[in-house]
Amino acid sequence: MNNILTHLGNVGIIPVIAIDDADDAVALGGALLAGNLPCAEITFRTAAAAQAIEKMSAAHPDICVGAGTVLTVAQAETAKAAGAQFVVTPGFDEAVVDWCLANDMPITPGVMTPTEINMALNKGLSLMKFFPAEAAGGIQALKAIGGPYAGVTFIPTGGINANNLTDYLNLPMVHACGGSFMVKKNLIATKRFDEIEKLAAAAAEIVRSARAE
């Protein structure tokens, strides 16, 4: 597996970030590093995404910074130019997947159904984002999918929190999880980076404990 995707699996929980002010990216990255979460998925849900990716990547080379909510090839190109090391999409978009594969950009496309999983497998991808995890059936859905798709692993995202993170990580088909509970938009906007650090550290400890079981 690609080294970037392996790293995300080792971290275990990927902070999914919507940031309005790119100038907050440096302090946010510092909080994540101090909380032992050296990765970030900065989503294209805001206009500040590309600049935030660039600023966090430049200030914190030890953080694996990726782009999330990538909906178009143009956004994928913008993300790569800004320094993103991986791309995450909410659904399966063939054009975006093809561009990423052609440009050596690690991608985890969003899937929710067996049909979408097959589409990703046909592109040679075996690691996918399961989204929206809780709304799509959560733990039970992933257990059911684990039968016919034994070689597929997932990054469930959507509804993941400190209370259910361990349950997801204990599933053999879960590579890592994505979550915003430690990097909520209001915490970033109000510059409560000390609180983000504490939440990141708590999430990292949940991962450590789950992996030790």
Task: Explain briefly what this protein structure is.
With 213 residues, the protein is an alpha/beta fold.
Description:
By secondary structure, this protein is an alpha/beta fold. It has one domain: Alpha-Beta Barrel (TIM Barrel), CATH 3.20.20.70. 45% of the residues lie in helices and 15% in strands. The chain has ten helices and nine strands. It has helices spanning 3-11, 25-34, 49-59, 73-82, 94-102, 114-121, 138-145, 165-169, 185-189, 193-212; strands at 13-17, 39-43, 64-68, 87-88, 107-108, 110-111, 127-130, 153-156, 177-179. A four-stranded parallel beta sheet has the order 3-2-1-9, sandwiched between helices. Helix 2 (25-34) packs across helix 3 (49-59) and helix 2 runs parallel beside helix 10 (193-212). The protein is globular and about 45 Å long.
**In CATH terms, what is the fold-level topology?**
TIM Barrel
Highest-level CATH class: Alpha Beta
Superfamily (CATH H level) name: Aldolase class I
Overall form? globular
- In terms of DSSP E residues, the strand content is 15-25%
What is the chains' assembly state? single chain
List SSEs in N-to-C order: HEHEHEHEHEEHEHEHEHH
Helix content: 40-55%
- Ranges where pLDDT stays below 50 over 5 or more residues in a row are none
Structural class: alpha/beta
Number of helices: 10
- SS elements, strand count: 9
Mean pLDDT: 97
* Major beta sheet summary: 4 strands, parallel
The domain tally reads 1
CATH architecture: Alpha-Beta Barrel
Give the termini distance in whole angstroms.
Answer: 24 Å
The Cα radius of gyration reads 16 Å
